[in-house]
Amino acid sequence: MSSTAPPPLELPGKGISWLExxxxxxxIRAAARFYGKDRMTQLFRQEAERAIAxxxxxxxxxxxxxVRVERFIxxxxxxxxxxxxxxxxxxxxxxxxxxxxxxxxYSGSLVGTQVKIEEVKPVPEAGPEQIGDLVALxxxxxxxxxxxxxxxxxxxxxxxxxxxxxxxxxxxxxxxxNSTHRRQIERIxxxxx
Length: 193
Hints:
This protein is mainly alpha-helical. It has six helices and two strands, in the order H-H-H-H-H-E-E-H. The chain has one domain (about 30-190): dinb family like domain (Four Helix Bundle (Hemerythrin (Met), subunit A), Up-down Bundle), CATH 1.20.120.450. The chain has helices at about 20-35, 35-55, 60-65, 85-105, 130-145, 165-190, and strands spanning about 155-160, 165. It has a two-stranded antiparallel sheet. Helix 2 (about 35-55) packs antiparallel against helix 5 (about 130-145) and helix 2 packs parallel to helix 6.
């Protein structure tokens, strides 16, 4: 019986259609418009804490095991073969970057900031330290957001897929992004069981 290798994944930044990007961008803008800053922070925390709780329930070997999941809305093709720890590291990378740009957007003082999808990928060696890193990041991120005022004011920064976003919209993106990758972790765990 011969086994065929799965097809190669798309390069980072590819694998999400134009229409899906438009729909996701509209959802981010709607969430930022209809939910207040505190509610978005609550959603951000809840989704990150759910991902952390899931990861804590795994052995280190399970957490390091890469699993290719089916693509679902919001996840690009090149991200479909990660381990749980790689997924957590990705959340740390992305949320650290968003935490750094929110005060800049709020104050209108962006300094040479550019977002590139290919620069937020985790390393295959990501390990259980990512759990503690994400726990610390959630606290730091929440503290930064709490100290800012109206996130709807200030400058905008373009996202490679969703166009120019305000601080409120980047904050909504962070919460939605946590939810997307929490779902990815659930799918990885289903495949591991």
